Amino acid sequence: MEAGFQIEMTRVYVEMADYNHALELIDELDRREDLLDHQRIELLVQRTECLIQTKKYEVANGLLVHMLNKQLAQQTIDDQTFCDLFNKLGTAHFFLRDFEKAFSAYEQAYRISQKLHEYGLISAKVSYNLGITCNQLGYKDDATRYLEKAYLFFDSISDMNRVAQTLFELAIASGNPSQLVQARSLFESLNMVHQANRVKQHYAFHIQSRQDYKKAVDELYMVATEFEQIGDVGMSVYTYSRATMVCLEYDDLEQASECLNEATLREQKMANKENYPLAYYFRARSKYFLCNEQYENCILDSRKSAEIYGIMGMDYESADSLQLAAEAFRRKGDYQEAFEVSQKSYDRIKKLSRGNQV
Description:
CATH topology of the domain at 65-178: Serine Threonine Protein Phosphatase 5, Tetratricopeptide repeat
CATH superfamily of the domain at 65-178: Tetratricopeptide repeat domain
Helix content: over 70%
Distance between the termini: 48 Å
Structural class: mainly alpha
TPR repeats: 83-116
Pfam family, one: TPR_12
Strand content: under 5%
Shape: globular
Protein name: Tetratricopeptide repeat protein
Keywords: TPR repeat
């Protein structure tokens, strides 16, 4: 069978999200000796997409790094493919929770996208991905700038799924509650339950908790239950931890204890100990211990949280967690240790200034 037709079939499989059949056909094609160089590159693009979609991020990362190192030495592919490969590398790093490496890859993809003849789908995807990575790293102004560009394009082609996703990320970057409301409405109309729950969680924690914290906690409980029902135990842990923080903000230690117990029960059920929810869980637990004058436990969990955030390149979050340990040392009267921990926290925050120079 003609190679060109089979390669087109791999694209169809990928578009249909039939990644296993796509990979089988790609493996078969890779054994052919009559493929042209550009066809092998096309197969690599399709293979890495399949690997990312099937959560084989390490394998995808290895293939992409090898190919991109060769292309950086002697570029033999067009800018659009080059941009797409860097975008995929960023996505592999993003899902491996290495946000600094993701930022670097997406930034390179963005630079290449600036050389393309028009701002099309690949450029918008890169802008969106760079924006959400800036959100994770705390570069909110840059996140807003990139996300607004992506939003305008997705809206122009009526891609409502991506419009909703981008609105939500814009709300995270800007704190605009109307964007949260719009995003939730779109997610619900598209029957995207997981994403709608993320919006409800964000709204309850950041907006509703300022108006009526008890109602916010009730809402967070409902969202945590929904996450658990759809199989996302990690997000359930994260949401109960959010509820814990709301209670602590209002000195409701009894309710905070109940929320934290719910988070701990789910944390023990987690099959995969995902970094992101665990980092926040340890922070919530650290703050709970601080409020209950259990300073050694506070310091221990504060450092666990800071370490996990640090591994992900989330320096602002890492610094925020370290401040709990610094406060525990101050309350213990250990001012030298408090100063040293605060200095570490400050050093991590200083790294964020790079985000404003993108």
